[in-house]
Every structure is written in C-alpha cells, then in structure tokens.
Specification:
The protein has 506 residues and is α/β, with parallel strands linked by helices. It contains 13 helices and 19 strands. The chain is 40% helix and 21% strand. The strands form three sheets. Strands 1, 2, 3, 4, 5, 6, 9, 10, 11 and 12 form a ten-stranded mixed β-sheet that branches.
Length: 506
C-alpha cells in the first residue's frame, strides 16, 4: 500500500504550541526578491527579534513568531508574500513513477497537522477585517466632519483637495518642500504621526491577543468556519503548486490537481480557482517540500506607486537596495534615473531622517514620479486628517551626465540603470554607463560615499567600472531576478581620489 514518503529525519511542524495554555506560535514563510534573502532576514531579526532561516529555494525565508505578532509581520518592507507553514519536509523521497508519486501527495493531506495553521489563518483574516472596520470608523475623520458647518462647505473642501491634487500632478518641475513656518512644525507632527502608528500597532496586537483568548478552550474541526448567523460556511479554496527541479516525474499542474482533490475530500471544501477563501500552497524544490496556507491576498510590494511606467521597480526591491547602502540620519540620497520614483519614494517613507532627491531626463517619467509623490501626500493627509507636513523628497528634471549638484555633496546614490531593453539600448549603454559612473563619483563624498546600482547589462557595467576603478570600488554584488531577467545589484564604495570633470573612458 502506497503511503506518504517522509523525510530522512522527523518533519518540521509549521505551528508550535508548547504545553497547555501556551501561546500559539507560527512558522511563517515569506517570499522576497531573489538575492535579498539575507537582507530580509536582517529586517526580521531587527524588527521582530526572530531568528530567520534562508531556504535552499531562492527567494524564500522562514521564521517563527507568536500569533499575536502577525500585524508586525505584515509591516515588513522586504517581503512580497506571506504564508503560515503547515509542515516542512527537508528531504522528501518521491516515488519514481508518476502515479505512485502523486498518490503519495494525496495520502500526505490526511497526515498533515492542519488545525493550528488554520487557526493562524483565521486569526489573520479577523485582524484584516478589524483593521478595515477601524479605518471606516476613524474618529479623526468624524471630528473633521463635525468641524464642517454645512454640506456646502464640505463640498468646497473636497473641490479644493481635488484642485490641489491636479495642480500638484501638473507640476512636473518638482515637489517643493513646505515653507519655513510649516517646517518648524514638522518634528511635532512627525512625533504625532509616530504616536498614531504606535497606537495602531498596539490596537492590532491587542486585537490579536483578544482573538487568541476568545479562541482558547474551544476546539473546532480544522477548517470549520461559520457565518454571522452561526451557520457552518463551506469554504472555497484553491491549491497553488510551485515546483523547481528536474527529477520530478510529474508537473506542477498534476501535483496541484491531485493534492487539491485530496484537500477537498479531507475538508469538504469547494474548489474555486478565482474567488477562493483559502489558498493552499504546495512548494516543491528538488527534494524539499513545504505545505503552507497563504496569509496575503495581494503582494505586499504593491505600495506607494499609483502611476506606473514601463520599468517600474517593485517597492520591496527598492527597499532592499536602500537597506544595502545603510542610510544614516541626515544622509543626502539621490536617484538620478528615478523613472516613476519607486526608490526615492520608498526611501522617503522608510528613512524620513534622510533627504531624498529624485531626477530623470524624461519629462514623462518626472511627471509620473510627481504624481506618485502627490498620491502619497494625499494618502498621508487623509490618514492624519490634517495638513500633511510633506515628505523629505524633491524631484527635478535633469541630465544624468551633467547633474546640477555640487561636487562631493551627496552621500548615497541608489538607482535602477537602463537595461538597454525596454529603455535605451545596449549600444548606448557603452557611452552612458561610464559617463554616469564618473558623474556619480563627482557628486559623491570621497571616502564615505556609496552607490547601489541595478542593471541587467552586466558586461557593459563591468567594463565601465574597470575604467573607473580609481573612483569606485566594488564592495558587494547580488544576483537578482527582475521580471524574469537575470540582473545584478552592485554596492560600490567611493574612493578618496578626486573625480575629474571630464575624462576619456575607452
């Protein structure tokens, strides 16, 4: 009789609970931009205090957190998607024939410890609902409405807000900082914002604790869910299989189909590929098998950007690039080829104690970036229900090879350089890359300046860097996947040598 083939050692459970009354703890899996696994692990250690393990399958990390810490997990900036691990097999022995291997996966469903991970999934869902409800019932917005004397005044205020956004969107020259009077108020407002964020975080953590206490002592069948009337609700689900490796006798679709059939039979759920409640993940990488339940409906990298261009960078990748250069308070950070502004907007949001400058030679890109900045300002204003203090970011249209910045005035350069595919050409890069590196070297502070640059045109970049070794020293290289393209992120350190204004490169 065929059974589920187990690992060489004992399998790792996804959720831990030590003893009666112990706090529910979950092993969380997270997908991150490939190449940035160690930086993501550092963020988890720094913000959650959890030891993080990098998977052999690139682009994934695992860490354990108490269930009431789920709100903090969702606020991580370097992760794309989250899931709770049901069980992990380090060395799963697949049967040789397709039929036997798929039968093993079917039989595995009945042996997995589903109950605790499903509790974590239910808790995660209830927290999302409470957060949405709290936003709708925001007392600050109620106070704002009470201040309005009539519907006419409220309409007038909305018209002014709309006009303000249109004016801001049309201003392609840049987003100007607040005047001196407002600037003086910034620390006070910033402190208020921080208190509001901390209060929101405390509310979410308190909600998680309440949910856990409510659920304590009540045993329900795994996967049982109820409607508001107390009637049992049949959950809809789908199984997503991600498979990597050449020695498997089956395809991803076949594994998802047969594993999904066993899940449906076990829980009596209804299969639905589009409008589902539960997404079960079956991740297979060579002999490593991880079964999980998704905790995110939409990737966490979809933030800040509302106006997209042909090469808009993921916010998670932008965060990783910024984190790689270790920004310090008061650092001046520029992105000379900002595109839609993903990098400087992420920088201004996460490192507000630094000053960020975004620029591009394309007026359409500058306009998109300005629109994204306006959208972020509008979002902050709505969140705070008062005049936004602004963000430490300016945008300007300029020539990358002739930047209007003083020599040695910039601490950090972070940029997504043209790959020569959708933007520019590889032929043009042979002249553009050395000219860019020379100009970046001129504006960067000798000895302490650094640059983090992303490109897929590695051959051209390596040659340009070899010609400018007297200005830039390569400190680290990360291999990343950007939209299916194999690219590299280079961390460069500025040498003490003075950069010449003009130089023959080749």
């Amino acid at each position: 009789m065929a059974g589920a083939a187990g690992p060489a050692g004992s399998p790792g459970a996804g959720v831990a609970a030590a003893g009666e009354g112990a706090e529910l703890a979950a092993v969380i899996g997270a997908t991150v931009p490939t190449g940035f696994e160690l930086l993501a692990a550092e963020e988890v250690q720094e913000k959650l205090g959890s030891v993080c393990r990098v998977s052999r399958d690139r682009g994934k990390i695992y860490f354990e957190v108490p269930a009431q810490g789920l709100p903090q997990v969702h606020r991580l900036r370097s992760v794309d998607n989250l899931f709770v691990v049901v069980q992990e097999f380090k060395d799963y022995q697949f049967k040789e024939t397709k039929e036997a291997a798929l039968k093993d996966l079917e039989d595995l469903v009945k042996k997995l410890p589903w109950t605790e991970p499903l509790k974590v999934w239910e808790l995660n869902n209830s927290l999302k609902k409470k957060k949405t409800k709290r936003k709708k019932q925001n007392p600050q917005s109620t106070v704002r409405k009470e201040k309005l004397n009539s519907d006419g005044e409220e309409k007038e205020a909305n018209q002014k807000d709309s006009k303000k956004e249109e004016d801001c969107a049309q201003d392609t020259a840049g987003v100007e900082p607040a005047d001196g009077q407002d600037t003086e108020k910034t620390p006070e407002v910033a402190s208020q914002n921080q208190e509001e964020e901390e209060e929101e975080g405390n509310n979410e953590q308190s909600d998680a604790k309440d949910e856990l206490q409510t659920g304590a002592g009540t045993e329900t069948k795994a996967g049982d869910s109820r409607t508001s009337n107390g009637e049992a609700k049949v959950l809809k689900f789908r199984v997503t299989c991600n498979r990597a490796g050449e020695k498997h006798s089956f395809t991803s679709n076949e594994a998802a189909r047969d594993f999904g059939g066993a899940v449906q039979e076990h829980f009596q759920w209804k299969a639905d590929m589009t409008n589902f409640d539960v997404e079960v993940l079956l991740n297979i990488h060579n002999n490593e098998v991880v079964v999980g339940i998704a905790l995110t409906e939409e990737s966490l990298h979809r933030r800040n950007i509302t106006h997209f261009g042909p090469t808009t960078l993921r916010s998670t990748l932008a965060y990783g690039m910024l984190r790689l250069c270790d920004p310090q308070p008061t650092d001046i950070i520029i992105d000379p080829m900002c595109g839609t502004g993903a990098i400087p907007i992420e920088g201004a949001t996460e490192w507000p104690s630094c000053y960020h400058i975004a620029g591009d030679n394309n007026p359409q890109a500058v306009k998109r970036a300005a629109n994204n900045i306006c959208s972020l300002l509008k979002k902050n204003e709505n969140k705070e229900s008062n005049a936004s203090p602004g963000i430490p970011l300016d945008i300007i249209q300029w020539d990358i090879c002739n930047l209007p910045l003083r020599t040695g005035s910039v601490d950090i350069v972070v940029s997504d350089m043209p790959f020569g595919k959708r933007i520019g050409s590889k032929k043009k890069n042979w002249d553009l890359y050395p000219a860019c590196l020379m100009e970046m070297g001129r504006i960067c502070t000798p000895g302490t300046g650094r640059a983090v640059l992303l490109t897929q045109d590695k051959k051209c970049f390596a040659r340009a860097l070899s010609r400018l070794g007297h200005i830039w020293r390569r400190a680290q290289t990360l291999w990343v996947n950007v939209g299916g393209l194999h690219a590299s992120v280079y961390l460069l350190k500025r040498t003490w040598e003075r950069a010449e204004e003009k130089r023959s490169f080749w």
